[in-house]
């Protein structure tokens, strides 16, 4: 970033345009009139900055205060919780709500989760066994 600022300052001093930096400006830029100090900047320059930077202990104190603020911010960010669900983003009356409700009813997070895999060996064709697969739920419901 500093290199870009330096290049921009060189461009301005060479009286070149902003976007078309290969071309020179016809007239000169007005001279910079400088910064005029107001009451707040005088206060910070004369009283506030010297009080903070007077001793090493003051500098350490400032660093500790800002380190404490940073730690407090990190702690607070870790305490945030997400309090939304999928249903908050789905309009009422949508078929997706019925799908999510069915998933909650049949696949609730409570209880024991069992993974069921159906493996077809010897190159059996899955389409020939469709009727027995459709009855699989009834056959295992009594177990």
UniProtKB/TrEMBL annotation:
<dbReference type="GO" id="GO:0042632">
    <property type="term" value="P:cholesterol homeostasis"/>
</dbReference>
<protein>
    <submittedName>
        <fullName>Uncharacterized protein</fullName>
    </submittedName>
</protein>
<dbReference type="GO" id="GO:0015918">
    <property type="term" value="P:sterol transport"/>
</dbReference>
<dbReference type="GO" id="GO:0030299">
    <property type="term" value="P:intestinal cholesterol absorption"/>
</dbReference>
<keyword id="KW-0812">Transmembrane</keyword>
<feature type="transmembrane region" description="Helical">
    <location>
        <begin position="56"/>
        <end position="77"/>
    </location>
</feature>
<keyword id="KW-0472">Membrane</keyword>
<keyword id="KW-1133">Transmembrane helix</keyword>
<dbReference type="GO" id="GO:0005886">
    <property type="term" value="C:plasma membrane"/>
</dbReference>
<dbReference type="GO" id="GO:0015485">
    <property type="term" value="F:cholesterol binding"/>
</dbReference>
């Amino acid at each position: 970033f500093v290199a870009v600022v330096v290049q921009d300052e060189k461009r301005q001093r060479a009286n070149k345009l902003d976007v078309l930096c290969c071309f020179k400006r016809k007239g000169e830029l007005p001279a910079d009139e400088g910064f005029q100090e107001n009451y707040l900047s005088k206060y910070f320059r004369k009283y506030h900055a010297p009080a903070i930077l007077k001793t090493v202990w003051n500098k350490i104190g400032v660093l500790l205060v800002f380190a404490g603020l940073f730690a407090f911010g990190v702690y607070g960010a870790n305490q945030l919780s997400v309090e939304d669900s999928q249903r908050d983003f789905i309009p009422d009356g949508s078929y997706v709500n019925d799908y999510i409700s069915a998933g909650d009813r049949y696949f609730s997070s409570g209880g024991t989760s069992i993974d069921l895999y159906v493996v077809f060996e010897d190159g059996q064709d899955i389409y020939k066994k469709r009727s027995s697969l459709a009855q699989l739920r009834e056959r295992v419901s009594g177990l």
